[in-house]
Every structure is written in C-alpha cells, then in structure tokens.
Amino acid sequence: MMRVILVLAVLILGSTGGEIAITHGMKATGEPARLRPLALLQFLWRAVRNGWFWMGAPLMALSFYSLLLLLSWEPVSFVIPTSALSYVVGTLGAKYILGEQISAARWAGVLLVCAGVALVAAG
Amino acid sequence: MASERRLRIKTLIMVLAMMVCANAGDLMLKRGMSQVGAVQLTASGLAQAFRFTVTNGTIWVGIFFLTGFMLSYMTVLSWADYSYVMPAGAFGYALVTLLAVVFLHEAVSPRRWIGVVLICTGVLLVGQTKPRTTAVASEVVPA
Asked: Is residue B18 part of a domain?
C-alpha cells in the first residue's frame, strides 16, 4: 500500500508540476501566428528551445511511467479516481504559481469534474 | 468582442483535438500494458518490462496519439489558462461512457451516470469562464 501511495504522489505532483512548467514556458513562447502546419512547426520549434519545456517534459514523463507502473499493479477503477486529485492540485498550482484568477465558477467546475471522474472511473 | 469569440473557438478546436488524442492514446496504452503484464520493481523486472513495452506495437500507437495530445496541449496552453484547459480534458471520461452505451450497449451503473453528469456540468461551468486571465506574449504584431 505504501508503494502505491508513493507512486501516486509522484504521478500527481509530476503531472501537475510538469504541466505548470510547460504552461509557463508556452506563455513565454507566445501563441502561434496562425494554425497552419508551417506556422505550427515554427511555433513548436520555438517552444522546445524554451528551458521550461525541458523542465516540464521530464516531470510529465516521470508521471507517465508512474501511471504505467500503477496500472500494472492496480485496476483502472482505482488508479483514475485517485489520480483525479490532480485536478485540484493543478488548480491550486495555477492560482499560486501561474497567477491565474480562479473564479468561484471555475472552482466549482473543477470540483465537480474531480468528483465526476472519480465516480465514472469507480464504475 | 470578435477576438474573444475567436479565442473561444480556437480553444474549443484544440481541446477537442486533445480529447480525441488522449482517449485513443490511453485506450491503446491500457491494451498494450495488459499484454505486458504486471511489472516487478527489481532491476531485471524493470529491464524486462522496458523490453516488452518498446517492442509492443499497441504501445507505440498509444505513444503516437499521446504525442499528438502533447502538441495540441502545448499549443492551447500558449494562449489559454492551464486551469481552463485542464478540467476540459475530463470530458473524455463522459464521452467514453456515452460511446460505450450507444455503440457497445454496455450497462452503466447509476453511480457512473452521476459521474457523467458531474463532469459535463463541471466542464460547462469552467467553459463559460474567461479562457485567459494572465498576460500572454503574442507573436502577432499589430500593423
């Protein structure tokens, strides 16, 4: 049980931490001029030259391997509901690290989504 | 007003792309990992699991879709809030349930239906908030 909790913590903190680092990097990169293949390639090239991407991507990879590991031990109906906590952790990170404004409606939505995912995945 | 509308439409398009890729990717990975079997947390166990996963075709299809997810996610995050985009990803769980009912005629428990309703309500609630609340660098230089 201890190893499951530990890997779950790595899964949640890795995915939210990684996504927050990448969001920070993408905001610094700026949005693509237009959504055409060439413009998108140039945009992605600029994005991967950003240091934050290389901080976020390994964290997300770590989280991805934790997910594979957990799924090999426990059923999806356990793994997905518990990892749904990352919606709350991610929103807290968005507020305190990225400085996004989380309105009451957005908080309510996130909590509903979190509970909903837990119920759906639990069957 | 027009730019706000454009922002919402392109966010919606990218979120849809994310959802399709994430769900297809997850499905393939789940299938692939069940072929690989339980992973032992020892050096030889991990090495063996690594060999099995990199030679499994289903896992690679999953990785292809997850790469598509990653690219659309990065793109949408360049203009929209993380806290706006992230919950929308959960709509996939509701979608999978609906598809299972319509196409596979699966029986769905009341608990799972409540979950679907909560997810849809939650995503709609977040969806009607402002997609962007922070300053963003823009490549488009006004003429």
From this structure: yes
